[in-house]
């Protein structure tokens, strides 16, 4: 237990140092820094025209538009410190593979030009599916279509993905993601420690 408390104390110090670093340098979504509390980020997104669909302390769904396309966005915050670290954009389902692919390629081009970064890209179908068979959209729902581009930018990562007949963008702030991983590891360690404590051998006489 002492080791657990020491670990949590050291983690808190590291988390504080991370927050102190590069406070003005975060990945942005629609010019809104991906950082701060869920309440503050949601408030800024409301000002930008988004409407809350559902909300919890560390997860919020909102409706609106992005790049003049209707979408739903999902905001995630760290489990303990409630710091927003990622925003996902889910565009509406497509009824045409070639329209979906065209949007994907256009976004890929725009992101490359904006951030001046060449993405890590995979664009392929897995047998028995192939482009031109007429079942491309079905392939996107069966993990048989791998179309994604990952942009490693200065303050985080942007993923552009075709999945389940739709285009998805995922913005992840580097510093917030580090804090999220640390807090999730702390939760796992605490559960493990408590489980071990509960499962200690007991005296059969009681």
Explain what you see:
The protein has 206 residues and is an alpha+beta fold. Helix content is 38%, strand content 32%. The strands form 2 sheets. An 8-stranded antiparallel beta sheet has the order 3-4-5-6-10-9-8-7. It has a two-stranded antiparallel sheet with strand order 1-2. β4 and β5 (69-77) form a beta hairpin. The longest helix has 25 residues, at 174-198. It is globular. The two termini are 24 Å apart. 23% of the residues are buried. Mean pLDDT is 85; it is low at 4-9, 18-22 and 190-206.
How far apart the termini lie comes to 24 Å
Number of helices: 5
Mean pLDDT: 85
Note poorly predicted spans.
4-9, 18-22, 190-206
Order of helices and strands: HEEHEEEEHEHEEEH
Structural class by SSE content: alpha+beta
How large a portion of the residues is in β-strands, by DSSP E?
25-35%
Global Rg = 21 Å
Into which percent range does the helicity of residues fall?
Answer: 25-40%
Strand order of the largest sheet: 3-4-5-6-10-9-8-7
How is the biggest beta sheet arranged? 8 strands, antiparallel
Tell how many strands the DSSP assignment holds: 10
Q: What is the overall silhouette?
A: globular
């Amino acid at each position: 237990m002492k080791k657990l408390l020491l670990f949590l104390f050291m983690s808190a110090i590291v988390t504080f140092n991370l927050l102190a670093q590069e406070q003005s340098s975060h990945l942005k979504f629609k010019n809104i820094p991906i950082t701060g509390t869920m309440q503050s980020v949601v408030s800024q997104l409301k000002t930008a025209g988004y409407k809350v669909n559902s909300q919890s302390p560390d997860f919020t769904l909102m409706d609106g538009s992005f790049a003049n396309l209707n979408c739903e966005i999902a905001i995630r915050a760290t489990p303990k410190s409630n710091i927003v670290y990622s925003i996902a954009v889910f565009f509406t389902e497509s009824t045409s593979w070639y329209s979906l692919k065209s949007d994907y390629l256009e976004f890929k081009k725009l992101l490359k030009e904006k951030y001046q970064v060449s993405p890590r890209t995979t664009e392929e179908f897995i047998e028995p599916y192939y482009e031109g068979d007429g079942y491309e959209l079905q392939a996107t729902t069966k993990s048989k279509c791998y179309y994604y581009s990952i942009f490693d930018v200065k303050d985080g990562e942007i993923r552009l993905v075709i999945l389940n007949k739709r285009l998805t963008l995922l913005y992840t702030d580097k510093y917030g993601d580090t804090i999220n991983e640390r807090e999730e590891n702390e939760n796992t360690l605490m559960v493990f420690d408590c489980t071990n404590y509960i499962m200690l051998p007991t005296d059969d006489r009681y």
